[in-house]
Amino acid sequence: MNLSSWIANPWAHMPAWLAFEPFGWNISLFDLCIAVVLWIGAWIVLSVGKTLITRTLERYAWTDWSGTTADGALGFVRTLPAGLSITLGLYPAIVYLGNDSPIMPYIRGLLFMAVIWYGTKLALAIVDRFARDAFMTERDEKKGDATTYHLVMMGMRTLAIVIAILLILTNFGVEIAPLLASLGVGGIAIAFALQSVLADIFASISIYFDRPFKIGDYVTVGTDGGHVQKVGIKSTRIKTLEGQELVIPNKDITNVRVNNYATLERRRVILGFSVIYTTPTATIRRVPEIVQEIAQTIPNFTLDRVHFSNFGVYSLDFEVVYYAETAEYAAHMDTKQTFLLALMEAFEREKITFAYPTQTVFVRGMEKPSEETAEFIAS
Question: What pLDDT does residue 209 have?
C-alpha cells in the first residue's frame, strides 16, 4: 500500500473497527476521534492566544505612550469568560462532522445557545467595566455614585437577557413578530394588574435621574432613618442605626420628604439654659461674655450668637446658637459635651446657679388657728 492510494480512498485501507458508528448517528468512531482532536486543538490555540495577548498587554499597560489603550484592552481580554474558548473550540469539530448526522441540528442549536450565553456575559462584563469607570470613581473627594452604577447595570442585564432570548427563539425558527404582537396586547392587561409594581419601577427611574442620595448616605425618610444599602428596581434598602434592614418601596420615597445628611458639612445647634431669678443684673450681663470666652477655647466650635432671651416662669432664659464644624454626629456630640462642661465649670467659679422648676407660694390674711385646732393638727 502506497501513500497515494491511501489518500485516494482512505476507507478502503482503514480497520473495520474505526468505521463503527457507536451511537448510530452516521458518525464513525474515526470521525468522532478527529472531531475531538479538532475541538481540543482549537481550545488550546484559543487559550494560548489569550495568554500571549494578556502578557503582551501587561508589558505595555503602564507605559506613558500606550498606558490608557493597553490598560483598556487588557481589561477587555481579562473579561473573556474561560468557557468561551471551550465553546468556540467546538466549531471546527462541527464543521468537520457536516450535516449528515440527524443529531447535528441539535448540537448546532446547543452551540448557538452557548455562544449567546457567553456573548451576553462578555457584553455585560465590558459594560460593567465602563460603568465602574464612569460611576464608581472618586470625584471631588466624595464617594462615587454607586446608586447610578447599580441602576445602569440592572437595566443593561434586563436588556441583554431579553435580546438573548429573542435570538435563541429566532434560531429555533420561532416567529418573533406575532410573539411581540401578542405580548403587546397582553402587556396592557399585565400593566393594570401590576400598577403598584410599575409605580415602584418608574420611581426607581426618577431616583436615578434625580439622585437624591447615594449608596452609603445617611438619610431619613419620614420618621425612619439609616444608611442606604441598595437601590433596587422596586425598593430601596436602608440599614438603621439599630442594625435592622428597612425595605422602603421606591414610590414611597418619591412621595415623602427625604433628608440626606451625607452632604452636611457643619451642624447648626440651638442650645438653651436658664439661671435663677435672684441672679444679680450685673451677673446676667456677664453670662454672654462667659459663653464667648468658652467658645474661643473649643475646637470646631463657631459661635453665632448668645442672648438673654426670655423671662421664664421660674427662670431667666438664655439662648446660644453655634456651629459644630463637623459632619460626624459623634464629633458633634463631643463638641457639645465639651461646651456644656466648660459652662458648668465657669458658672461654679462665678457663683451662678442654674435654674430648675421651682414655685414659691406667698400666703396673706390667714388667721392664727385656735388652741383646739392646733392640738388637733398636732395629734
Answer: 73
CATH number for region 267-349? 3.30.70.100
Domain boundaries, the chain: 17-190, 198-260, 267-349
- The per-residue pLDDT for 364 is 64
* Residue 203 CB neighbours (<10 A): 21
Q: Sorting pLDDT into bands at 50, 70 and 90, what band is 173? A: confident
SS (H, E, C) 34-63: HHHHHHHHHHHHHHHHHHHHHHHHHHHCCC
- Gap between the Cα atoms of 36 and 29, Å rounded: 11
How many CA atoms lie within 13 Å of 236's alpha carbon, on the beta-carbon side? 35
**187 grid coordinates:** 402587556
Which of the four CATH numbers 2.30.30.60, 3.40.1080.10, 1.20.120.450, 3.30.420.40 does domain 198-260 have?
A: 2.30.30.60
> How high does pLDDT run on average in the chain?
75
Spatial separation of the C-alpha atoms in residues 114 and 110, rounded to whole Å: 6
Q: Is the C-alpha dihedral spanning 132, 134, 138, 144 positive or negative?
A: negative
The per-residue pLDDT for range 54-80, each reduced to its tens digit, is 777 666 554 433 444 445 555 556 656
Given the DSSP bridges, would you call strands 267-275 and 258-260 parallel, antiparallel or unpaired? unpaired
Backbone angles phi, psi at 179, to 5 degrees: -65, -45
